């Protein structure tokens, strides 16, 4: 099995990277291959809401001059996905938001590419705003019928300078427990698929406030 983890920080080896690494170490311990992809250091254009992905249905965003389409396929091929972001003004990093809006919109347009994959979110923060970011990241996973492992607290770790998160003993434990539970859930799902039938996917009902 494989997990792909996305680092939304503009710092390649900042605190978000260290948080993801702590989770990945536990996955590797259980024989699950991991890869950390650096999103935050790349130029990623924001979603233009052109809706062409719903028209084309080719698993691609029409913006082709960045890495989003490669990352969509990486997620499609993986058994598990981790979304990691630093907290910027109590929100996701801009690059991570641009990536996730486009990737998950394309996934939805193509019959929910990530449905029933295991997914987790982590946030790195100096002081405040970790929880909104954890929740924001989870919105992508829960919209997509993904399976979410938990830890013994919300997945937030504290630090300012790169690597400082290792001093947050509780945060380190949260990431470690998350990694263990993610590996466990992935194993249970892998074995369960042989004996338990997945629910049929319902056609999405899309309503708004006027009709
Ligand atoms: C533009 C910017 C905005 C930030 N906003 C917040 C914030 O709202 N709350 C906070 O506690 N820390 C904030 N921080 C600090 C980072 O969240 C913190 O240093 C985090 O560990 C960075 O993770 P990284 O090393 O992976 O980039 C901000 C940092 C930057 C660069």
Low-pLDDT runs:
none
Shape assignment: globular
- Series of secondary-structure elements, N-terminal to C-terminal: EHEHHEHEHEH
Strand order of the largest sheet: 2-1-3-4-5
What ions, cofactors and ligands are bound? flavin mononucleotide
Percentage of β-strand residues: 5-15%
Overall structural domain count: 1
Q: Could you estimate the helical fraction of the residues in percent?
A: 25-40%
N-to-C terminal Cα separation, in Å? 44 Å
What is the number of strand segments? 5
- Round the Cα radius of gyration to an integer and report it: 17 Å
Which CATH top level class fits?
Answer: Alpha Beta
CATH architecture title: 3-Layer(aba) Sandwich
Largest pleated sheet: 5 strands, parallel
From the 3D structure, determine the CATH topology.
Rossmann fold
Give the integer mean of the pLDDT values: 97
Query: What is the tally of helical segments?
Result: 6
At the fourth CATH level, what is the homologous superfamily?
Flavodoxin domain
